UniProtKB/TrEMBL annotation:
The gene is rimI. Residues 39-188 form the N-acetyltransferase domain. One of its GO terms (molecular function) is protein-N-terminal-alanine acetyltransferase activity. It holds the Pfam family Acetyltransf_1. InterPro entries: AcTrfase_RimI/Ard1, Acyl_CoA_acyltransferase, GNAT_dom, MshD_Acetyltransferase. Keywords: Transferase. This is Acetyltransferase. CDD domains: NAT_SF (cd04301).
Length: 198
């Protein structure tokens, strides 16, 4: 009898989380205003991959830390991955990706990049907050990410959004083997709201 009750609780709990995640992942393509400028937000598709790789090249000095196959594999995972792209005048300016783990109740930002000429305009903050709100909606506990030890600008943004430094991954990055700083956001405490959007 106890086993049946435990199984029912697990079934009910995980189904509720799955339903919430499915709702959170239903992205309607729409326009947003960030710091007075209009942009178009959509869920990433395979046709966006060439432009996503172009964003990576612009951000990472001609390199693409993730290749076409890596992005294609991520976009195939409809149940536990969410990738968003942002455009202006049909130009892809940036993207964000996140993984979602129902068992640990943890979301993880896998990748975020904005082309240099559109950085410091609130776009990165907007995309990160979009993922934060999705994770909160699903009733997750934490949102995590890694950031290069040398990327002080990104660290400052994440700290401003409420992330805390929680550890270091030694020689984490492929190629130059730079250390990564682990950062974690306690979603139960996050009460932010990007003031630049409408």
């Amino acid at each position: 009898m106890l086993d049946k009750l435990i199984n029912w609780v697990k079934y009910t709990f995980f189904n509720r989380t799955r339903r919430l995640r499915e709702q959170a992942f239903e992205i309607q393509h729409h326009n947003v205003v960030i710091e007075g400028q209009s942009y178009f937000i959509a869920q990433a598709t395979n046709t966006d991959i060439p432009e996503i790789l172009a964003v990576e090249r612009a951000v990472y000095d001609g390199q693409t830390p993730w290749d076409r196959m890596a992005f294609a594999n991520e976009l195939r995972r409809k149940l536990d991955r969410l990738y968003l792209v942002i455009r202006h005048n049909d130009q892809l300016l940036g993207f964000i990706g996140a993984s979602f783990d129902d068992r640990s109740k943890q979301a993880h930002i896998t990748n975020v990049a904005i082309i240099p000429e559109y950085q410091n305009r609130g776009i990165g903050s907007y995309l990160i907050e979009a993922i934060i709100k999705k994770a909160q909606f699903i009733e997750y506990k934490t949102l995590t990410l890694e950031v290069r030890k040398s990327n002080i600008t990104a660290q400052a943004l994440y700290l401003k959004l409420g992330f805390e430094k929680t550890g270091i991954k030694k020689r984490y990055y492929f190629g130059d083997h730079e250390d990564a700083i682990d950062m974690t956001l306690d979603l139960s405490k996050w009460r932010g709201g990007y003031r630049g959007s409408k």
